[in-house]
Each structure stands twice: as C-alpha cells, then as structure tokens.
Amino acid sequence: MRKKDLFTLIQPLLPRCHSLAYCLLPDDLQAQQLVIDAFTQCLLKEKHVWLTREWDDKDKKSQVQQRKTFLKTMVRCLVDLGVRRAAQISTPYEGQEFRQFYQMDPRTRAVAWLRFQQNWPLEEIERALVMKRHEVIEKVHNARFLMMGQPPHWMPTSREAQL
C-alpha cells in the first residue's frame, strides 16, 4: 500500500479517533498528540499488514472492511496509550461540564464512548479492547450509573439504554 493509499484509508477515521482521544484526555493538544502516537504505534506494530496490502480503489466493500479493521486496531492503540497517559497526568479535569464523565477511569470512558456514541455491540468492544465480556458489561453499567446526574449529550437516558 502506498502512503497516499494509506492516507486515503485513514482520512475518514481521524475525526472518530480524535473524539475518542478527547474522551480519554480532555485536552485538545494532548488528544491530537495521542492520535499521532497511536497511529505511529499502530503502524509500527503491524506495518507488515498495512504497508503490504493492496488498495483497490474500485472495490468499496474491501475499503469498508479495511477501514473497519484499521479502526479497531487504532482504538486498541488509542485506549492503551490513553489509559497510560491519563495515569501520568496529575491535574484533574477542571471543567464543570461533564464532570462525572471525566471522573470515571479512562477505560470506562472509552467503553462508554464506544457503546453509546459509536453504537458498537458488546462483542466488538470486547475484541477491540481485548477485554472479557463481563468486564465490558460492568463498565457499561458503571458508566450509565455514574452518568445519571449529568450525562453528555450523546449518552442515552436510562429508558433508551438497553443492552
């Protein structure tokens, strides 16, 4: 895969990756750096996969499948790096908006974002984050319980949130 093809592959995924990074680290500059670092880590870990693949401009199904696979790999790298960076940051979130959301641990925030914002099924979250099913369900329920007071605009109400 040429660099141009790789950029074409990931271009539509960047806003979603930045949104997840901002969910993990509520600072725009840190979120941007997290996306850059996760992308680099993703390529270094699996460069034999992404740089050797052939890109077919005409086959839309293949493009969608490749984007989906790359997104799952990016999500795994983003969450792993984001959890480690969030543990190193000593200053807590200062904003008033979504305080309960940012007081949750970063992995719970990531699971909540994937489940409620991106509508990922539990099995996909389980595979992407390399977690056990009961851990994913626990984090979804914890996030829903903790966000009852002041949920983000994308978090469903208790009646809408059904597993």
Provide an overview of this structure.
This protein has 163 residues and is mostly helical. The chain folds into two domains: 1-91, no CATH class; 95-163, Arc Repressor Mutant, subunit A. It contains nine helices and no strands. Helix 2 runs parallel beside helix 5 (60-88), helix 3 (28-45) crosses helix 5 (60-88) and helix 5 (60-88) packs across helix 8.
Q: Give the structural class.
A: mainly alpha
Ranges with pLDDT <50 over ≥5 residues? none
* Cα Rg: 16 Å
Number of domains: 2
The biggest sheet, with number of strands, parallel, antiparallel or mixed sense and barrel status, is:
none
Shape: globular
Question: Helix content range of the residues, please?
Answer: 55-70%
Q: What is the count of β-strands?
A: 0
The amount of beta strand, in percent, is under 5%
Number of helices: 9
Order of helices and strands: HHHHHHHHH
Q: Could you tell me the mean pLDDT?
A: 80
Terminal residue distance: 39 Å
